Amino acid sequence: MQAILSPAGLIRLELSVETVWVGTTVYPSVAVWRAWYDGRPVLATSFFRLAGRGEPIAYGMTLTGVRDRSPERAAVPSTLCDAHWVDRSGRGFTVTFALIDQRPDEADPFRLPRLVCSWAIKPDESAEGLADESFIAFPDGSQLIQSDAGDAPMSLFSPDGKVIAVHRRPMAGQLLFFDRPGDLAVSRTPLMEKQEVWEVADPREALTELFSVAPFLPAVPHETRFLCGGLTPAFMKAYAWMIGAGDSCGMSWMMRGEPGGYAVLARCAAGVWRVACASATERVLTVRLEDLMRRTPGATPEDTVRVELLRDPNKSEGTVGSVSETFDAVAFDAKIVLEVKAGGGFFITVRENEK
Q1: What secondary structure does DSSP assign to 79-139, as a single string?
Q2: Is residue 184 part of a domain?
Q3: Do residue 224 and residue 322 come from a single domain?
Q4: Nearest of 45, 44, 34 to residue 12 by alpha carbon
Q5: What is the distance between the alpha carbons of residues 79 and 101, in angstroms, rounded to a whole number?
């Protein structure tokens, strides 16, 4: 067994040759790999195999060596290595792994994920014409975030609560690791085709795709089109802004959120915070201004802020439309408690008062 660590040790790969059971059939000496993130398993017994042999799994493999090719100097520190396996007939393949667990935000205009494990498979000359049919397995209890997202990477929760996004392509792939769904939602990894129009046909589906599809678009859609009824003006303003916020400058932060349920996204640009919420179900949410102000350079507890608010009407104000309010000289540590309707939301702008 060979172990490979990312530069900061957050990602660990294990490469080996093991016996694999598929149903009631035993395959000896299969090329196996596993992955851990932050000491927790995120990739179970997965294995590489080459099609074209007439066998469901290429067995009788030998790991002949692992060669470290990590660059000594790079803008983003990474671990790069080649692992080589051969089968009983001498045909083999090399898998190049790249592990990244350090990505400075200030040098990252696309907000790429900080933890990445990628691989690329190259058959030996003696194995030309064989195709990759790698098998990727996740720990028992892993749960998909979305059931069908077209050509979007597959995103899922591991049993330990980590989030994994998997992007497969011929003879290669990527694993992206996140501590929570909100970290996935505000990342940007351009892996999909550009969408000119983003359509919302159901609020639950829209709030799932905010986490599972939008992070992988190469650019913001030019238009967000709402095709279903029952959405409040606050939901539509907040959701359209959230879909478009990813490509804008400034710091984005998913304060709270649950795929398919709701999202509260904050973004700061030029010292002005904007907080958007869209929810598929009725709920009460609290926004703590202190959470925002402590992330604002130069802000002090003595400062006051101006708050502009677009929200759903509460039960005493009616059932349709939206309510706009402005509050001056709001305390640094104030809390904003809001009732959100099913298919509703809010949009808050927070700016410091002049000193």
Answers
A1: EEEEEEEE-TTS-EEEEEEEEE----GGG-TT---SEEEEEEEEE-GGGTT--B--B----
A2: no
A3: yes
A4: 34
A5: 9
Classify residue 97 as exposed, middle or buried by CB count within 10 Å of its CB (0-12, 13-18, 19+). buried
- Binned at pLDDT 50, 70 and 90, residue 6 comes out as very high
Q: What is the pTM of this model?
A: 0.83
> What does the alpha-carbon distance between residue 139 and residue 142 come to, in Å, rounded to a whole number?
6
Residue 231, helix vs strand vs coil:
coil
Residue numbers of the domain that contains 246: 197-352
Instruction: Give tens-digit pLDDT for 239-257.
Output: 999 998 544 555 788 999 9
Distance CA 175, CA 167 (A): 7
pLDDT in tens, 208-218: 999 989 888 88
Helix axes 233-245, 203-212, angle to 10 degrees: 20
In this structure, the strands spanning 143-144 and 154-157 are antiparallel
Are residues 160 and 208 part of one domain?
no
**Residue 110 neighbours by CB under 8 Å, 6+ apart:** 188, 189, 190
Instruction: Name which of 289, 341, 269, 353 is nearest 312 in CA terms.
Output: 341
Q: Which range, of 108-117, 150-159, 172-181, 254-263, averages the lowest pLDDT?
A: 108-117
CA nearest 342: which of 207, 147, 185, 181? 207
Tell me 203's DSSP state.
H
Number of domains in the chain: 2
